[in-house]
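Friendly challenge for the regulars: who can give me the structure tokens for this chain first? No prize, just bragging rights.
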Amino acid sequence: MPHEQLVGTAPFIESIRASTTATADPPPRKVRRASRKGKSGNDLLFLALAAALLAVAVALGRSGRFTAGSDFGYWVGVAGGVAMLLLFLYPLRKRWRPLRAVGTTRFWFAFHMMLGIAGPLLIIVHSTLAFGSLNAIVAFSAMALVAGSGIVGRFLYSRIHHGLYGRRATLADLRAQAGLDSEEVRSKLAFAPAVEAELDEFARKASATGRHGLAHPLQFMALGWHAKVARRRCTREALRALRQRAAEEGWSDERLERRIRSRSALIAAHLVEVQRVAQFGVFERLFSWWHVLHVPLVYMMVLAAIAHVVAVHMY
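First reply, four minutes later:
Bragging rights claimed.
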């Protein structure tokens, strides 16, 4: 996918200096704030919840109160197997017209993710993590690979869609959300030329990182750290410039505090969105590669699970 420059057609600094500072602070941009805080917060919450449920499943499975062949262990395994089979309803709905009228895409995707967590957890409890045959080891390993792949896929999916349940994003969408094709960010930061220069430098660095993509993986992974460094520098310089202007124009403490909060939030949101634009193409490619890998893993898991069920009931 082609990568566009992150800065506009006119140089960033020159276009800022041609603007004037707004006299009133507009209402906060809820969409941008939600995008900034929501993704990382949701990812951490999801991982924490998954880790906690995994710990509970392992503890229950290793408690010694039942075995995989006991009545309880057997029916837990059946429940886990049914949950894994129901995972196929989500891709089936995309391809079978009668199912498209049942429920919403958001519901089916959430249902798919819930089963993708519940199924492996039930299988872990059923297995008690004690494997008596090669067949059981293969089936469990295939399930673990699919579950791990699903977690990775969820992360990549959220990077190229508008929220976890939203439509697929485009590079133009992200550029517009970041304000890269408008004068909004530039006019509001015209009072601090050093901030302009820092944002311009980060935009160039992010653009180069996005073009190189995975050819330089360390640079790609370090882009978030560079954004944090740029944020600290810009916020510090904006604070200094605002205090100087407040002293010159006799602002009240309340007005100064309001401007500080507004400009700090603007800088933080803009840097995050610039980073997202730069990484978008890479995440798109990774998601397509993930899909190519995930599908064979699912088929491998199904075949291993069938072989395991047949072996258990035959022998």
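Residues 156 and 283 are 6 Å apart (CA to CA). Residues 1-36 have pLDDT under 50 and may be disordered. Your move, everyone else.
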